[in-house]
Design the sequence.
């Protein structure tokens, strides 16, 4: 009994602090950054604003206030992401212009922080729009060989991924967008022919894009992997698509439709983490019910990410490392 008590105290003081998923309810398309000792979580609002939760631990995000950092002239805001470039934070997002009514109104935009605080506040900086397609959504910023590109999704005959040259984080270069992935494998077309939510991932001088595939209204929404294997990011043949999904539903864990993710580092920069949304039921739909979840991931000997399976809700996971 005494020994058990001593061991219990040791475990408590050596300090494996724990958190449980989900870390935020009603928070689809999550994105997280760790910056100067804090975690910042932003997600789809489906409204005319975006808000951020800030805390020193993932568990602490649950009680953090959800502070509005940006309000825009429009509606149905989706898929916000924060990227820091030259001291400023850029908030990439998708929304509809005032007065428009259906989903096809979605286009990509970027807002800029006043200073170097991820909490902003933010003001509208630029529209990142290529005309001619029914919908553009899910913008992200990727840097390849020192140059910035916008990566995003668009609907043509199917929902595909594109890349677009930028001259800086908020200015489209002359030219057009280039398709770099269309849904072709069986696992990319369940319930809908969809590639969306492209997210940059860099490791050991290799550049990947992790993206979401199949319909977000099904339990089969999941993640796939692209790698830049050539010299021209605008050329689809210079991107390799891996033949199998890298992260998907786990029925034993009651996690359905995991996807539309972001990546972040532990506060001490040593660990790689993924933040993603999922449904708790196979009947879950593509709306605000999806919650944000996080877990650590590792890398294989082949240099590819190993995301494992989505962890069950309520299971204690170790907090990201924060030792300096
Ligand atoms: C969050 O708030 C609840 C209810 O007030 C409290 O029981 C819990 O300890 C808080 N958690 C953290 C991590 O602050
Ligand atoms: C990455 O590239 C740099 C510059 O070419 C090189 O010095 C370094 O060894 C490379 N790292 C890995 C892990 O390949
Ligand atoms: C794309 O890359 C392939 C292989 O390097 C090349 O044959 C083709 O001409 C390139 N297409 C364009 C439009 O540059």
Sequence:
């Amino acid at each position: 009994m005494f020994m058990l008590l001593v061991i219990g105290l040791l475990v408590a003081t050596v300090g494996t602090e724990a958190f449980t998923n989900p870390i935020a309810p009603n928070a689809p398309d999550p994105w997280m950054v760790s910056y100067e000792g804090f975690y910042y979580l932003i997600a789809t609002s489906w409204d005319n604003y975006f808000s951020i939760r800030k805390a020193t631990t993932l568990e602490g995000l649950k009680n953090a206030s959800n502070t509005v950092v940006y309000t825009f002239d429009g509606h149905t805001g989706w898929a916000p992401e924060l990227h820091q470039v030259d001291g400023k934070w850029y908030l990439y997002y998708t929304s509809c212009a005032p007065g428009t009514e259906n989903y096809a109104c979605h286009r990509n935009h970027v807002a800029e922080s006043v200073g170097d605080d991820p909490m902003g506040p933010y003001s509208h900086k630029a529209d990142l729009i290529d005309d001619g397609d029914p919908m553009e959504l899910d913008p992200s910023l990727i840097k390849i060989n020192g140059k910035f590109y916008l990566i995003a999704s668009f609907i043509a005959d199917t929902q595909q991924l594109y890349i677009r040259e930028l001259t800086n984080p908020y200015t489209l270069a002359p030219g057009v967008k280039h398709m770099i992935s269309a849904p072709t494998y069986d696992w990319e077309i369940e319930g809908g022919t969809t590639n969306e939510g492209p997210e940059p991932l860099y490791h050991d001088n290799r550049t990947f894009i992790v993206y979401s595939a199949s319909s977000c209204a099904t339990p089969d929404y999941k993640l796939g992997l692209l790698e830049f294997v050539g010299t021209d990011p605008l050329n689809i043949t210079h991107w390799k698509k891996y033949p199998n999904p890298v992260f998907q539903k786990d029925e034993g864990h009651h996690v359905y439709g995991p996807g539309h993710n972001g990546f972040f580092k532990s506060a001490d920069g040593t660990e790689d983490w993924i933040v993603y949304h999922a449904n708790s039921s196979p009947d879950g739909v593509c709306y605000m019910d999806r919650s944000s979840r996080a877990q650590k991931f590792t890398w294989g000997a082949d240099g590819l990410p190993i995301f494992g399976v989505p962890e069950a809700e309520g299971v204690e996971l170790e907090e990201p490392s924060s030792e300096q």
